[in-house]
Amino acid sequence: MLSPKKTKYRKAHKGRIHGKAQAGTTLNFGAFGLKAQSPNRITSRQIEAARRAITRHMKRQGRLWIRIFPDVPVSKKPLEVRQGKGKGSPEFWVCRVKPGRIMFELDGVSREIAEAAFELASAKLPLETKFIARIGE
Fold first, then answer.
1. Of 63, 67, 57, whose CA–CA distance to 112 is shortest?
2. How many structural domains are present in the chain?
3. Most buried pick, 18, 31, 77, 136, via CB within 10 A?
């Protein structure tokens, strides 16, 4: 699963996801893409599950690009621990995704295969998505 090798700070604030994506809103690598329609945090496990669903459906043909990376640590306190005594330790990594962000790109497969693969992947993700294609594909 994806996680950063090192970070500047060990723990991060939760924060809120405001506005639309500024960067990563156009297809740069492939002919087809999966675009986020709503804001949410996506865990490294969800990214991996979506990647597996896509590659399995493509049957190892074509090329896949993952355009998001989980770089925000999420901390949790252990079960049945009283409040106070500081913040919990980092448990997993997430990526904050804004609406309009392209999360996955595909190339080297037909439109039907790409649409079906992204349909399977969007079932693994906690946000609304949209299939997009380069003009003329």
1. 57
2. 1
3. 31
How far is the C-alpha of 68 from the C-alpha of 104, rounded, in Å? 8
Task: Give strand pairing partners of 63.
Answer: 107
Instruction: Write the CATH number for 109.
Output: 3.90.1170.10
Q: Are 97 and 40 in contact (CB under 8 A)?
A: yes
Sequence-separated (6 or more) residues with CB below 8 Å from residue 20: 98, 99, 100
Order across the sheet with 40-43: list the strands. Answer: 40-43, 89-97, 72-76
Buried-state track 83-100, b at ≥16 Cβ within 10 A, e below 16: eeeeeeebeebbbbbbbb
Q: What global pTM score does this model have?
A: 0.95
Q: pLDDT per residue over 5-39, tens digit each?
A: 999 999 999 999 999 999 999 999 999 999 999 99
Instruction: Judge whether 4 lies within some domain.
Output: no
